[in-house]
Amino acid sequence: xxxxxxxxxxxxxxxxxxxxxxxxxxxxxxxxxxxxxxxxxxxxxxxxxxxxxxxxxxxxxxxxxxxxxxxxxxxxxxxxxxxxxxxxxxxxxxxxxxxxxxxxxxxxxxxxxxxxxxxxxxxxxxxxxxxxxxxxxxxxxxxxxxxxxxxxxxxxxxxxxxxxxxxxxxxxxxxxxxxxxxxxxxxxxxxxxxxxxxxxxxxxxxxxxxxxxxxxxxxxxxxxxxxxxxxxxxxxxxxxxxxxxxxxxxxxxxxxxxxxxxxxxxxxxxxxxxxxxxxxxxxxxxxxxxxxxxxxxxxxxxxxxxxxxxxxxxxxxxxxxxxxxxxxxxxxxxxxxxxxxxxxxxxxxxxxxxxxxxxxxxxxxxxxxxxxxxxxxxxxxxxxxxxxxxxxxxxxxxxxxxxxxxxxxxxxxxxxxxxxxxxxxxxxxxxxxxxxx
Length: 437
Ligand code: ASP
Known about the structure:
binds aspartic acid; Proton glutamate symport protein; 437 residues; 20 helices; mainly alpha; 0% strand
């Protein structure tokens, strides 16, 4: 049988995304009959989209736990673990600080919200409290690891998996049995992830059509300045900052990176959740970009939880927009405060749709801006959420590559190979067992 073209699936996913946008806009503008919404949008497409997201989420906890245990045991010593952790953390915080600085500079230059009539949006917003950082630190240690898994609490799962992995390494021959089991489990779970990826063209199409069909673009007009300033800032981060960092810090070809990012980018865009995208991010980073499991299994779930560059950018532009609408002057110290709070706010908040709006309350109250201002931007948030989640996930992949390269844990041949990690190829050959550095 001839071998299927590599990455046909990726092309199908991208096609599903584009046709989802077109058909969603058409349904929104033309096909407004109630039965179309009842049967198609809230019926068929809702079911397909929800099943797809559920299938993705189903894989997250087992994948992160098993993969991280295998990853930790592959490290030669505990110092390596500490080094990788610190590098990832510093890069995640630095990329977020860069992101929000870009967003603030652009927003300052463009001035979105000047002359905006706050009466145009009469939605109300009631703020939910974001947890303080001290509580985030305390909550990192699970009192019950099973509950942590049941709740999908990523930081707690990471902490437990790290400790468990270290214990496996230190437990001699018995630990070795456990490790063998986990390696096999890892292979099996990755196989399941590939099944879910095969559903992606249908799932992505359903999710995106439904989003665009229900959103409408009419809300966009009064908020065009906010919307496009943020879109431009996100594009600079995606096509400027990450490629530059990859080139400067890791001597990696940014174009190859951008070509390989398409799968997780499409998943992030359609689900608006970095958390639900973890299985695909991990698959891409390991199998397409050649990052060793010992780095990827740690940096990807950590990044999905604490690294939200796109979200921080939204908070920067939103702060300037709201300040302009309410005619409040922001001083340089306010800008610095926004950088600091937006960077810290992205740590320890769940990687789920719209959580950025919750943490935005933290940022606004820090600089003394009215929290009700959030009501003004809610109308266009879904679409921006999809875009900023794409940036969040791309940031996780870029940092994973940079950390891996610095640890000599990136297989350059895999990174350079355009065929690497093709799901079409993977399902034709038996999966190799996890390689250990
Ligand atoms: N949806 C984003 C994510 O999951 C978070 C947000 O900005 O609301 O990464």
